[in-house]
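re: ur question from yesterday

yeah so i grabbed the chain u mentioned. its 551 aa long if i counted rite. heres the sequnce exactly as i have it in my notes:
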Amino acid sequence: MDRRTLLAISLMLLIAVVPALFMRRDRPAQGPAVAADSVLSQPAETAAAQPEAPRPEMVPQPAAALPAARDSAPAQVVAVESDLYRFEFSTRGARIVSAILEKYETFRPGDTGRVQMIPQGSRWLDYYLVVEGDTVSLADWSFEPTTTALAVTGESAELGWVARRGFVSVELTYTFWPGTYMFDVAGRVTGASRSALIVIGLGPRIAPVEADSVWDYRSYGVVTKDGSTERLNFRSLDPGEQRALEGPFEWVAIKSKYFLGAVLALDEEQPKFGGALVTGGNRSGKYAVRANVLASLPAPGGTFSFQCYFGPQEFHSLSAIGHGLEDVNPYGWILRPIIRPFANLIVRILLWMHETLNLGYGWVLILFGLAMRVLLWPLNQKAMRSSMAMQAVQPEMKAVQERYKEDPQRMQQEVMKLYKEHGVNPLGGCLPMLIPMPILFALFFVFRETIEFRGVPFLWLPDLSRPDPFFIIPIAMGLSMFAVTRIGQIGVPPNPQTKMMLYVMPGFLTFIFLKLSAGLNLYYAVSNIASIPQQWLIAQQRLRRQANKKE
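ran it thru and got these structure tokens back, copy pasting raw so excuse formatting
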């Protein structure tokens, strides 16, 4: 393995892991675990950083044309249960106030039980009715439900709501379906106008439920779909700062690391969301931990409909809904169009292996690492042999460079002539190494974002999505990288730079990988170990060539 090959490998690994290094450095100041939540539970008059409702242009100032008297009836809770969740809705505004996911456990210190997505004081499904420039909030309207409890079993189930004030009547119907976290919302407003606009509140966030809250804090964002998905990170907003997002949107969502709350307009006949307004909230250290989001939906003739999703970012669940919802993590930066297809393919392969072979995800990652090494064997073989050819012409090339050092143009011509005579491609050692780079980048994001690895134990590892508590896997990864590099240098002329990389790169990457997910470390360790036989065979070929030259 020559200097160029080592440099190519090092650059690929650096590009894959450097983003994680910066993420870890950008850690918020430590404080009480509930500090970020405290504002949510404060009374409106004491929560100065959280206005009761933003007043964007799409939500005009309230006027006297619509009734606004507050209901005095106490709020009640209506529970909707299925084998996937327990949703609770308040009769005050018909909003969702609790979303417990039965398949997922909370890992937040001090919490026990299942994941609760909705924090206290949330504004999920707050409704605002806009009619001819007048606005009234339905959040304090008392809605009468058709039932006090609902079970979603073998067929769809409906929960109806009715609220009246003066001459205005609002009817809502929530339809729940078995086997999905999504439910339908249909509404009708009568007695106001034939032309109306519904504004739907989202947020201010999804409750943090991970062992390290930073994982959720740095993942918070608003994601919209208009042809392509676009994400606005909470951390990019200052407190009180407003960002208007222009639609039309098929869906508007708020995400954490692994969970998602979204409103969707998926039917072809129904209007899309006209736009959204995002208002930054308070911060925890360097991270914004909340943001109010309002999404506007036309209600022609006083009727409207949309869908809601409150659940995990499971690939199967989101891809079954379609409309690009599985792309709710638009990672990859400028390389996203290249990386995203590889990431989707890799996720599909991993899930298929898990389901078809009936193997735990730890063994799936091991098999996948071995399979990737086998598939990439021809490319690596070509790169290594090209490096050997380059090494063979090094003495002659140095002689040419010394002979024509005063004439750079002639030197370049002679070097290219030398390459041609020996059939050497100067890029042959690098290009085969660059081809797998999208796969390498995609793997980094897949292992970092895939919820299917969350909470999955393997051998001594309590959770493949979290760092190895004993650092065994990252150390094994570093040692395997050292072994691969050391074997690759057998028969290579001594070079101070390659000798330095033999020790520096494995040590540096081991340090970086100590805090990355155990699943990612497991894959890289297996991949490195599986590449040792190929490195050994190439090293033996190199030694045989050198022996033949001496004879």
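noticed a couple things. The chain has 14 helices and 22 strands. also Confidence is low (pLDDT under 50) at residues 1-9, 15-65.
anyway ttyl
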